[in-house]
Design a protein that fits this description.
Blueprint lengths: L1 H26 L8 H19 L2 H5 L4 H34 L6 H22 L2 H15 L5
Helix pairs in contact: 1-2, 2-4, 2-5, 4-5, 5-6
Length: 149
């Protein structure tokens, strides 16, 4: 049963990738009809969905045990639903940033931090460990780089 589920999820990932490619070509063509914030959020959200479906934690850490594989699929689904919440928050914050009136409160920053960690994990799953390390170092430098001077 778990094999059928994994095959089904792989098919979903491939179809989402195809739809994303067609939408990117059509939506960013000579007459873009989709607002930039929606395009960015949609592309990142689709990339996370594709990565979760094609490179799940169950394949990486699950081994042969069906219980461990199911546990890691549950973790991936929690990451997916949490990231969907992050995308909804992104849409609200993007509108506020565009209007020029934004107050980033602690819950908004926490949701953004969760989204950033999900993106860094998706980069790790796709490209290995070195690129996320570089990304984290650059984020630390952006935050604290000017402090000694």
């Amino acid at each position: 049963m778990l094999t059928k589920f994994e095959s089904f999820m792989r098919q979903i990932g491939l179809w989402v990738g195809f739809v994303l490619a067609v939408a990117a070509i059509y939506g960013a063509g000579p007459f873009p009809f989709i607002e930039q914030g929606v395009r960015l959020g949609g592309a990142i959200g689709s990339a996370v969905i594709i990565t979760l479906m094609l490179k799940p934690l169950a394949n990486e850490f699950g081994g042969e045990s069906p219980n461990r594989r199911m546990f890691f699929w549950v973790i991936d689904l929690i990451i997916l639903f949490g990231f969907l919440f992050t995308l909804l928050n992104f849409a609200e914050v993007y509108e506020s940033l565009w209007d020029g009136v934004v107050i980033l409160e602690t819950p908004t920053l926490a949701i953004g931090f969760f989204g950033t960690m999900v993106i860094i994990d998706m980069v790790r799953r796709n490209f290995g460990i070195i690129l996320p390390i570089i990304c984290i170092l650059m984020l630390i430098y952006a935050q604290f780089g000017d402090l000694p001077g």
